[in-house]
Amino acid sequence: MEDGRLVYESDEQYFYEAAIQFVKEGVCLLGGCCGTRPEHIRAMAEAVKNLSPVTEKKVIKEKPIIQLIQIQQVHELSLVDIVKSRRSVIVEFDPSKTLPMSQFLSGVNALKNAKIDAITLADNSLASP
């Protein structure tokens, strides 16, 4: 935090190098969030300006995520390994201030049944000034 604002400690070179790796992995849209400064965005834009998008990625078919989670407990597969091995679906939830938890968890369970790979919760999405 600097003067009450969230800022990244990583410099522009980190964003430059990360952008190249993201494109190599097939990411088609890059941007920033809280703490991203114009120099971070410029570094990413510079890094990818001459790169061609990935149009095809070899995907290794894996067992459904439920089985992978059981395997993970035994063999310590990480979500990173899962994402590297096949096309993955990760859904970010913004917890609601008013929705009862039972409805929220019902939605999470529906996504689990739809075989998504992971759910993330937005950090500090409910912050109010």
Describe the structure.
The protein has 129 residues and is mostly helical. It folds into two domains: 1-56, no CATH class; 65-121, no CATH class. The chain is built from five helices and two strands. It has helices at residues 12-24, 38-48, 65-75, 79-85, 101-113; strands at residues 90-93, 118-121. The longest helix has 13 residues, at 12-24. The model is unreliable at 68-75 (pLDDT under 50).
What are the main properties of this structure?
129 residues, mainly alpha, 2 domains, two-stranded parallel sheet, 5 helices, 2 strands, 43% helix
Topology of this structure?
Blueprint: H1 12-24, H2 38-48, H3 65-75, H4 79-85, E1 90-93, H5 101-113, E2 118-121
Parallel strand pairs: 1-2
Compact summary:
Helices cover 43% and strands 6% of the residues.
Count every helix, treating DSSP H or I runs of 4 or more residues as helices: 5
The biggest beta sheet is recorded as: 2 strands, parallel
- The proportion of strand residues reads 5-15%
Average pLDDT confidence is: 77
